[in-house]
Every structure is written in structure tokens, then in C-alpha cells.
Design a protein that fits this description.
Layout: H1 2-36, E1 44-45, E2 50-51, H2 58-61, H3 65-74, H4 88-101
Antiparallel strand pairs: 1-2
Helix pairs in contact: 1-4, 3-4
This protein binds heme C (HEC).
Heme C binds next to helix 3 and helix 4.
Length: about 100
């Protein structure tokens, strides 16, 4: 009985930890969106409070994470490529952020 509770507690701690990690990735992604990469200049995204009109409204197109990663890494149309400017982790974070909050 004690052993079972111990494992339940362990799993709970692991789950909370995972949640905290993904939240910090969202925070990092939001910061990149608004500041480091200035995606906000060109894109409207409600969660970020941005109203850029040059690129598509991200709440309308609701891109999959892989779509964001591709656009940010390689650029698309007049949107610049960020490879070299953002690290792989930063591209991952901003893509996680955009694909998550644009669904809301
Ligand atoms: C200079 C303005 C500009 C900036 C800065 C910019 N974008 Fe874009 N973005 C565009 C334009 C324009 C398009 C549409 C390109 C096309 O379809 O020809 C686009 C398209 C996209 C798409 C859709 C891609 C697809 O396959 O349909 C996503 C997602 C996206 N941008 C995310 C981002 C993110 C995240 C950032 C910041 C890291 C960013 N953009 C920065 C202008 C910009």
C-alpha cells in the first residue's frame, strides 16, 4: 500500500514537472515572438497582443508546429529565414508557442 502511494506520488511529481517545463517553453516562445524575432511586427496573434498586417493572421491560419518551424527556419515569401539568428531551441520554442496559442 505504501509502495503504491509512493509510485503515484512519483508519477504526479513527474507530470507536474513536465507541465512546468512546457509552460516555461511557452514563456520563452512568447518572448521571442514579441522581442528577439519581432514576429509581432508582421503577424496578428491574440495571445501576444500583436496586430501586424504584413503576414497572415496566425489565429486565422492556426498553423501546425511543423509549419511554423519550416517558415521560421527557411523563411517563406517576404518573411525572412531565422536560421542562424535563432538557435534550434529558440525556433522550437517560438513554434511551440505559436502553434499552441493560435488554437485558442
Ligand atoms: C517581415 C515580416 C514578417 C516577419 C518578421 C515574420 N513573418 Fe511570418 N510571414 C510573413 C509573410 C508575408 C508570410 C506569408 C508568406 C507567403 O505565404 O508568401 C508569413 C508566413 C508565416 C507563417 C505561415 C507559413 C505557411 O506555411 O503558411 C507562419 C506560421 C509564420 N509566418 C510565423 C512567423 C513567426 C513565428 C515569426 C517570427 C519568428 C514570423 N512569422 C516573422 C511575414 C513575416
Amino acid at each position: 500500500m505504501i509502495k503504491k502511494n509512493f509510485f503515484s506520488l512519483l508519477i504526479l511529481i513527474l507530470l507536474i514537472n513536465k507541465q512546468a517545463k512546457s509552460d516555461s517553453m511557452l514563456d520563452m516562445g512568447k518572448d521571442i515572438f514579441l522581442n528577439k524575432a519581432s514576429c509581432s511586427t508582421c503577424h496578428t496573434l491574440k495571445d501576444a497582443g500583436s496586430e501586424g498586417q504584413i503576414g497572415p493572421n496566425l489565429n486565422d491560419i492556426r498553423p501546425e508546429k511543423i509549419t511554423v518551424i519550416n517558415a521560421v527556419t527557411n523563411g517563406i515569401g517576404v518573411m525572412p529565414a531565422y536560421e542562424g539568428e535563432l538557435s534550434k531551441d529558440e525556433i522550437e520554442a517560438v513554434s511551440h508557442y505559436v502553434s499552441t496559442v493560435s488554437q485558442q
